[in-house]
Write a structure and sequence with these properties.
Elements: H1 21-24, E1 42-44, H2 48-53, E2 62-67, E3 70-75, E4 78-82, H3 86-90, E5 95-101, E6 105-111, E7 117-122, E8 128-134, E9 140-145, H4 173-176, E10 177-179, H5 187-193, H6 207-212, H7 214-217, E11 222-224, H8 239-242, H9 246-258, E12 264-268, H10 276-298, E13 305-309, E14 329-333, H11 335-338, H12 341-345
Parallel strand pairs: 10-11, 12-13
Antiparallel strand pairs: 1-5, 2-3, 3-4, 5-6, 6-7, 7-8, 8-9, 11-14, 12-14
Helix pairs in contact: 5-9
Length: 347
């Protein structure tokens, strides 16, 4: 994802970082959430592949190139990659069907053999505005929710980070970014991931807004999986490399036992060799490969993981040549950015 941000507001002293997720959301006015299935919809004949292929985009969005199932899009001076998460979310489902909702929205219902339903509402441009896991007993865990008022002008997408002042960190780099090569005890992953955002969240964002906005993403702490190796030009993870995810997977599992509505963003990155567009697609496949491994090898539910590739935009080592450290994946726990924490804690 590449582009320039508009001038930001002046810095504001927010004080020390929030002590927990609830404190991080104290600026957000509580909203009355409507169950994701309450609104009446009309069932339509649609497949997951059609959802992606027929996705509408805001006016002015240009498709630059397509690499297999990855689409490179340019919009508002930003270039980003779009992919299809449906194969991960719907794999092994008993049934998948779609419903038309008012205002051009679509509801996707994924029914699994164990009675769990994953219900997702997308706006007319395909952005996820609400996603919930509904248990067999009817309990609903809100995985993501955004007030649709922020999407009223959907033909003019803008970076929500432009509304935020520059970030001012009052913590050490080690408390903000965890390098996996420095981890001595696997429990460090859990201790790090459970930490709240580094500043108060001003409003809930859609998952797509978080993916597109570096400023918003940076509110969440980050794990750099430096020890996970990708061959040059490859998104394949060997069985040996998959085992390096065990510490992170165990941490995710513990967090999900406390809050089944956690959402983790997996970011893919490349070195600077090759074209920027090809690297965007490659990095996105790397992020997806890690998500697949976390689900298939360690049982992390697919709906708790979301992925995005950023190509060569955020190099860890400033070099134009091949570099293993730049061919990496990063993980953030973005729950406090995309879901009302209180609603899930009441379950």
């Amino acid at each position: 994802m590449q582009g320039q941000q508009a001038q930001q507001p002046a810095p504001v002293d927010q004080g020390p970082p929030p002590t927990d997720d609830k404190a991080a959301q104290q600026e957000i006015k509580p909203e009355k959430l409507v169950p994701v299935t309450e609104e009446k919809g009309k069932r339509i004949e649609l497949t997951p592949e059609q959802v992606v292929r027929e996705r509408r985009r805001p006016q002015g969005a240009d498709v630059l190139k397509q690499f297999g199932d990855r689409v490179i899009v340019q919009f508002n001076n930003q270039t980003f990659v779009e992919s299809n998460e449906a194969p991960r979310i719907t794999r092994g489902a008993r049934d998948v069907y779609y419903e038309d909702l008012p205002r051009g929205r679509t509801r996707e219902i994924v029914e699994r053999d164990n009675g769990v339903r994953i219900v997702t509402i997308r706006n007319r441009n395909g952005d996820v505005v609400q996603r919930s896991r509904i248990m067999p007993d009817g309990r609903e865990y809100v995985l993501s929710y955004v007030d649709e008022r922020y999407y009223q002008d959907v033909d003019d997408w803008r970076d929500p980070g432009d509304d935020l002042p520059p970030m001012r960190l009052d913590i050490s780099r080690r408390d903000y970014i965890l390098d996996s090569e420095e981890v001595e005890d696997p429990d460090e992953y859990y201790t790090f991931l459970e930490q709240p955002p580094v500043e108060r969240v001003q409003r809930l964002y859609s998952i797509d807004e978080v993916k597109r906005s570096a400023r918003v993403r940076d509110i969440a702490r980050r794990i750099d999986l430096d020890t996970l190796n990708f061959d040059f030009g490859s998104a394949t993870i060997s069985d040996e490399e998959v085992q390096k995810l065990e510490g992170v997977a165990t941490a995710m599992e513990k967090l999900l036992k406390k809050n089944p509505a956690e959402t983790f963003l997996i970011e893919g990155h490349t070195d600077a060799v090759g074209t920027p567009d090809a690297n965007l697609a490659l990095s996105d496949r790397r992020a997806e490969a890690v998500a697949e491994a976390l689900t298939n090898a360690f049982g992390i539910p697919a709906e708790n993981l979301t992925t995005q590739g950023y190509g060569e935009e955020y190099l860890k080592v400033n070099t134009s040549g091949p570099n293993r450290e730049n061919r990496r994946v990063a993980i953030r726990r973005i729950t406090s950015l995309v879901a009302p924490v209180a609603s899930n804690n009441e379950q």
